[in-house]
Amino acid sequence: MIDRSSRPHRSPNRTPEPVKRRIVHLRWKRRLGPVQIAGELGMPASTVHAVLVRCRLNRLSHVDRRTGEPARRYEHEHPGSLVHVDVKKLGNIPDGGGWRFVGRRQGDLNRLATPGLARSKYYQPRSGHAFVHTVLDDHSRVVYSEIHNDETAETAAAVLRRATAWFAARGVRIERVLSDNGGCYRSRLWARTCAELGITPKRTRPYRPQTNGKIERFHRTLAEGWAYARHYGSESARRKALPAWIHHYNHHRPHTATGKRPPITRLTNLAGQYN
Fold first, then answer.
1. Which of 76, 150, 170, 268 could cross-link 81 (Cys pair, CB 3.0–4.6 Å)?
2. At what angle do helices 188-197 and 153-168 cross, to 10 degrees?
3. Which of 73-77, 120-124, 229-233, 257-261 bottoms out in mean pLDDT, i.e. has the lowest?
4. DSSP 254
5. Is the whole-model pTM more than 0.90?
6. CA 150 to CA 189: how far, in whole Å?
7. Pairing relation of β-strands 118-119 and 125-126?
8. Four-point Cα dihedral 185, 188, 194, 200, nearest 10
9. CA-to-CA distance for 64 and 138, rounded, in angstroms?
10. How confident is the model over 196-214, as a mean pLDDT?
11. What sign does the CA torsion over 187, 191, 194, 200 have?
12. Does the pLDDT of residue 265 top 80, yes or no?
């Protein structure tokens, strides 16, 4: 008389294991969709989709884009155990607005009318670039960002020093830092700075940005939520908006990796929290 699951003991019509493995293989290695896989195997696309859902391969976001293998997720167990660093390069906005909002023709006219821009060999004005240096905590996803005019080793090392102090004020001691193989992170100055701060520097494998994927994904959110979110009349107006957006990201924006709560909620030892 004990209740049991209504699931049947036997499922004669269930997709055979060899066919299931073939479906998974085509999904991993060739990234085919249910319709394409069904065409190759001569079976209904709905059946293929059901198999992919059971194997958690129905979305390509679950699959590594480079290797086709299931994406391996990781998260360090406490804040400061590992931080990711990277630089996001953005084109400066001319006075009057950039081409994304005003169109190519008006954007070119705005660039011509912006004073102080360097000229190319064809005498065309160059707006230059802005470089957003970001330090992101692996466990909490809390970020520290600064915007500069270059990505030199001196600038990167200075950002790391200020980020270390910023995190320390919130009770977080940085133990390791993970970067790509950019020139500023391979410099002797970067190594000396990490040694002085007691941080172990680590670098990703060449041509493997997936290893630093958390900060790469943050930069996409940064571009959508701040850099190209609205019309800015000048580059200075966009730069002034960055600190407020970073505060919103850390303290108010829900994050799926932190249980749909703001990243700052994972810092359990904030300064002044305990009396």
1. 76
2. 20
3. 120-124
4. -
5. no
6. 16
7. antiparallel
8. 70
9. 19
10. 86
11. positive
12. yes
